[in-house]
Amino acid sequence: MPEETKSAIEWALSQQVQTEWEVIQVTVETDYLLVDKVREFFNENNIEYSTFSYDDLIPYLKDMGLLN
Amino acid sequence: MADITHMAARSGKVIRSDNTIVNEADGINDDGSRRVQLTGRNVEEITLLSPIALTNTNFISGNTVDLSKYKTYMIYVVNTHDVPVNFFVHGIGNGDIFFYNNDTKTFKTHNAGDIVIPSLPTGNAVIINDALPQIYTKPYKNLNAIVKAQSTPTVGSITAKLIGVVN
Fold this sequence. Notes:
Chain A is an alpha+beta fold. Helix content of chain A is 47%, strand content 12%. The two termini of chain A are 21 Å apart. In chain B, the strands form four sheets. Chain B has a four-stranded antiparallel β-sheet, with no helix packed on it. In chain B, strands 4-11-6-9 form a four-stranded antiparallel β-sheet, with no helix packed on it. The two termini of chain B are 51 Å apart. The chains are: A alpha+beta, B mainly beta.
């Protein structure tokens, strides 16, 4: 994972997602929204990355005290 | 006529349809509390494919799950990639699963890549049970999902989860 992953997670968790019906706050529990937003951060900041999953984010989430 | 407002909620013995008498004291614990048994359906959600942001068109395999503990289940897929993704299901030795087609008298696999998960707006999901009716009725002990993007995605991810009613 890129070294900016922690920053990407922090940014993602501050985001909301607008669906057709509601606005959803991105959290650790909204797993696919978190992955989508982390990817968005990488794209917008021209950070190179390869295929990654929510499981790849878990160690960072644990280090950040967001998961047990 | 008796005035029922002065009667207990129920009086007399309780008799089952086979004429045996119910001893209601059997339903009382030693400490005087009532013995209560909860009934209901135990539903679980498990992850077949953890949300994954695909960056190429390689085959990617998810978790292997045991479906034998479920009476019934529903599989749903969320694809927020900007491209369609082919969805495969493998089981029994991680190879293709073949089903007998009584009309053509031949065995045919469903793993032909013909289950295409379209790109969906965030918040939407597709339920694939109807696309895989053979899978839906079988108690596989080792089933796993495999995905392959039809072209290189630049945004989004794909997720597959199963909601099962435990036997």
